[in-house]
Structure formats: structure tokens, C-alpha cells
Amino acid sequence: YEMTGNLFLFEFPNRSMAEQILQGEWRWKKCKLHLEWWNPTAGCIPNSLTVKTSWIRAMVVPLHLWSQKIFKEIGDLRGGWKATVEETDLKNHLKWARIEIVGDDRN
């Protein structure tokens, strides 16, 4: 399963097969793969790092509230609205709205 960035989650039928896979050295397109056990913080930004902006998804926004004004209000509640992605503005999909906010939304 694809996760964030360059991370993928592999699922194996049993633990012994997963352990066997982890012992080997694996490559894909001449790039060495680093395999490790999954943990709940995989793909997360470490607390020691700070970021200037980050993206959030506003899920299940009712169609009558689908507007730049509402997205700005949501962003302001999460640290400060910076931008809304163009595909959200154009209503290319309505599953979620992607909003860029100031900071990392860890508060």
C-alpha cells in the first residue's frame, strides 16, 4: 500500500515470511530499499523539526459549504490559511478539500 512520500506498506501472510524478507537486501530499479517494521509514527514529521507550511484535508465538506471562504476559515482554525489547491477550487473531486496552512498543525 502506498503511504506518504516514498513510503510503502507491505503486508505478508505471516510473521515468519515478513522476518525472512527483512533479512534480505532488496533493490528496485538499481535503488537499495530500506525495509523496517511498521510503527505508528511512520511517515510523520519528527517533533524536533519545524515546518513553515503543511497541507491538510478537510473531509466530507457539504456541497453548500464548498467555497473559498469556508476553506479559509478552516485553515485559519488550524494555524492560518495560506492557499487552497486548484483542483479543490475547481471542484474536480469532492471527497476532500486540500488546504495549505501555516505551520505543521501539531497544536
Q: Please state the oligomeric state of the protein chains shown.
A: single chain
**Structural class category:** alpha+beta
Order of helices and strands: HEEEHEHE
**What spatial order of strands do you see in the largest sheet?**
3-5-4
> Count of DSSP E strands?
5
Question: How does this model look, in words?
Answer:
- With 107 residues, this protein is of the alpha+beta class.
- It has 2 domains: 1-44, no CATH class; 53-102, no CATH class.
- It has helices at residues 15-23, 68-77, 86-89; strands at residues 26-28, 31-33, 53-59, 81-84, 96-102.
- It has a 3-stranded antiparallel beta sheet. Strands 1-2 form a two-stranded antiparallel sheet.
- The longest helix has 10 residues, at 68-77.
- The protein starts with 14 loop residues before the first helix and ends in a 5-residue tail after the last strand.
Question: How are the secondary structure elements laid out?
Answer:
Layout: H1 15-23, E1 26-28, E2 31-33, E3 53-59, H2 68-77, E4 81-84, H3 86-89, E5 96-102
Task: List the keywords.
single chain, 107 residues, alpha+beta, 2 domains, three-stranded antiparallel β-sheet, two-stranded antiparallel ribbon, 3 helices, 5 strands, 22% strand, DUF4283
